[in-house]
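Allow me, if you will, to draw on your knowledge of protein folds for a short while. A protein sequence and the structure tokens that stand for its backbone fold form the material at issue. I would ask you to consider whether the tokens describe a fold that such a sequence might reasonably adopt. Thank you for your consideration; the sequence and its tokens are set out here:
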Amino acid sequence: CIRDSSLLACLMIGFANGFVSGLVILKKSALQIGTLSCALLPGIAVAVLMFGLTRWSLLLGAVVAALLVGLGSLFVSRTSRLNQDTALSILHTTAFAAGFIVLVRLGLQQKIDDWLFGSIMSLSDSDLWIAFAISAASVLTLLLFRRPILIYLFDPDTVSYTHLTLPTNRE
């Protein structure tokens, strides 16, 4: 039933996002994460252009775009006088425009809302498995490394002083 699968997807994705979002808020980087989410469009558009419209190509394109924009903003901020937020904003705007141009060239500009937001009601069984795998991996990884992550979020200097190793320091 579509309603049941949509509810299950909402629960899985919502729980994992809520779990990760708490750490994002603690790190005070919500603006950067929001900016990265809009920078996924060019990766999705190029993936469709190169590999066609498949779930895995869309996911791979989105991940590559996020990494390029995120790491690109670090590179620009470290090699220029711009701070990271400014560099991220410039790269985000450029990437979004490039993605929109690729979608227009593909003749898909009328579905821009679908590309950006998707539809929870149209998830297939394979989409549910992908959502489950990503949600479970995210939550389990954060649980495994929760102590060093929390120490880093509250006091990053402590990590360098104590030479904290990620998975082995447990109470």
User: Anything to note?
Assistant: The chain has nine helices and no strands. Confidence is low (pLDDT under 50) at residues 166-171. The radius of gyration is 18 Å. Residues 102 and 108 are 9 Å apart (CA to CA).
